[in-house]
Every structure is written in structure tokens, then in C-alpha cells.
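Quick one:
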Amino acid sequence: MNLPKTLGELKKSGYTSVSTKDELRRNLLNQIKSGQKRFPGIIGYDRSVLPQIENAVLSRHDFILLGLRGQAKTRILRQLAYLLDEFIPVIAGSVLNEDPFNPISDKYRALLKQAGDDLAIDWLHRDDRYHEKLATPDVSVADLIGDIDPIKAVREKLDLADEEVIHWGIIPRTNRGIFAINELPDLQPRIQVSLLNILEENDIQIRGFPIRVPLDMMLCFTANPEDYTNRGNIITPLKDRIASQINTHYPENIRDAMAITAQEAWEERGREIEIPELMKELIEGISFAARDSEYVDQTSGVSARLSISAYENLISNIERRAAINGENDLYPRVCDLYSVIASVVGKVEMAYEGELEGPTILAINLIGEAVNTTFNERFPSPKTPRKRDAEGLPMPIDNTYEAVIDFFSTGRRLELSDEMRYDEYKAALDQIAGLKEIAKKYHQTGDDRETYMVMEFILEGLHRANVIAKESPDNKFVYTDMLSNILRD
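Output:
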């Protein structure tokens, strides 16, 4: 790319400078008019969060994204850089990315007067115009804004009144760009005060230094509502100066959640591992169950990372089984769901009731809730209320699962494991007469492996409905008759 190298060449090219917020606004409007996709990879926010962000940009607002963990807040902010011009001209050597037409420091104003149209310029790519900082209690004003550097003053024999003795912080170095602060409430109140001038007057002050540096940038923030009570707060004057507050949220339906997991999860295992829709729904159902559970602290939220890591662990368990048995059966089973417990226990903050249960029991129960919800959506209820005829007499019940229940009521047991060979797995499920017919009736598929997975899913659904019992000795799953199990206990 042949870009101008001096101010004179830049003038001849017809380039005109605009403020960062006007640049963002212009480019966003052009993308909207052209129908271009904005914020690619952000799923589930098309009618909620993204329109509000676009309105904030069009209004030239600094804004804050407020939401629980794992709601793509940081990813959204990083994508704002794609609304910037690909390159902008800056004065060569300026750490503040100064505009060749309008320098903001004494040094480069003097240089412009001296060099005129021969002023050397560089070109700054948009990727270098976005910076972010994670707010932690040890962040100082010097980190963000800057401080006087006495060593520099001595080394270069400068007066302390000379602005050249300032060591600029990360915010001034993001001049003419976008600066984001993650987890704003974690920033100490006295540090938050240092941001007030930037938001309102677009300038900075360092200590008592008589200097005014007009900055040109967009400021963005993220915060977790939990932080307002647990770790800190946003001071009222700062909150008042942030023009737009936009609330994020978790996926509102299973389809959006599945799309996010498919986009983020690591599936490249060197060979194809097919995961059917039913199993993907069950994985997402665990997160949805956790977000509705009274045993989970809902103020902390349940991150989308739970589903992502659970999905990855599920695939890994399939790989592990194939390696153990030396076979190519790379297909999930319902018993594989319990291999994701490690992905659940570390992703949920338990309420008091959950602490009484314990993390592992809570994870197992959340998996059970996901199974129960999905089973009830796809299969008839195993507990159909008995109807009565015109004379009030009870009518015979047409029980879809009668053959399955009869199998266990005769005292027989069915043992499954996530380490069984595929032929053993099939043989075990084939023992139950009528089970395959139920699976095929309510779940049409041309894949025999999926049919057997659904057969196991029916057993798990009946167990969760308290129709048949299940024991889990030595990492195995043994289905038995409910009544016999109760009497034995």
C-alpha cells in the first residue's frame, strides 16, 4: 500500500481528519446501509444488546456493558476496533498518536511549525488503536494516566515543568482509539476519580502539573453486577458520566446456546466425532438447569463456558473409550454425560442449599434435570393420569413403557458403562423387548448408533421420572425395578 509519508503528501491526497467517535459513527452507518454483518460471532444479541451498542456508537457515547460472567462482554468490546478506519496517519515518533493536522503536545506543535509540509508521518493500523486494562486493586493512576519521571528529567536535563518529563500511561497512549476497562468496580474509588476529566472534558491532568492534553477516544467498560456488593462499586460521578449502560444476558433459547458452544468448543481431534442434536441439547440443558436452580447462586451467574468445557469433556470421553477398547466407535452415549461433572463443579457458585448437597451431587442433579426436561419434550409422560369412563369407572391405561417396566419388574437388571465395547452396549440394550420400537417411534433417525443412544436415553428418562431405579457402583450404571430397590433399601 502506497501511503503518504509527509504532511504535504497527505494534504494532496485529500485526507481529512475526524474525531474517533465520528469515525466510528460514520463507519457503522456505512456498514448498516450496506447490510454488512456487524459483530460477527456474537450470537443471541441481535434484537437486544447489539442494537443498544450501535445506538451508543451513533450517539458518540462512552458506554458500559453490565452483565454476569461469560456473556461475551470483552469479545464485543474488542470487535469495536473493526468499526475504525484500517489506517490513520500519526506524527512519526509520537507516543500519543497525534494527528498531523492538529498535534496536542507542545513538542509536536513546535515540530509542525518548524517542519511544515515536510513533517514525517506514520500510519497506525486499527488493531493498534484498541487497548484494554483489567481493573485490579493494584492499578495506579500512573498506570492509567501517567506520572512525572524524575529519572528522565535528570538524564535529559529537563525542567520538571516541561511536559517531556511525563511518562504517559496506557490511556493517553490510546489517543485516537478505543480504550476499555474490564471489571470497572474492582478499580479503587480514588483511581476511578482520575477518569472523570477524560469522560467529561476529554483531557487529563497529572498530579498538580499545569498541563491540558485534549484526548480523542472512546472509553468503554465492563462490570459484573455481583461486584457491586462483593468487591467494589462504581462511584456515582463516574457512573453519571458514562452515557449508556447496556445490560447483557445469557442465551434465551437452546438453539442460540448450541450455536455458541459449536463456535467456541474445540472439536478438532484428528478424526470426526459426530455428536447428534439430542446430546447437544442435553449439554446445553445442564447450563439452563443451573440458571434456574435454587441450589446455585444466581447472582454469580452460570457462564457459557460451562457448556463449552462440558462439550469438550464429552468428546474426550468418547475418544478415551475408543482408545480403551481399541475400536472406532466414536459416538456418544447417555452415560457419557456423567463425564462432564468436572466441567460443572468448577463453573457454579453454590447457594447455601447447594453447599449442603455438595458440588458433585449438585452436578449430578443438574444433569438429571437436563435429562428430565428434554425427555418430557420428546417423549410421552411415563406417568399418565388414569382416565375414567362416562360411568366414572377407571379406564385401562395405555402405557407406552409397559414392556420396559415389565422387564425390570421380573427382577432383571441392566448394566451399562461408558467403557463398554459397542457390541456389548448394543447387546445389553437389546435385552429389553420393545425398547427399540419406542425409540424409533418417537425419534426418527437413519443411524443405528443414534437409535441405541436414544434407547439408553429412554431408560435414563424413566429413572428421572422415578419409574425405574438406578444404582451407580464402580462407575457403572445399573437399572433395576423401582419397587424392588425400595424394599431392598
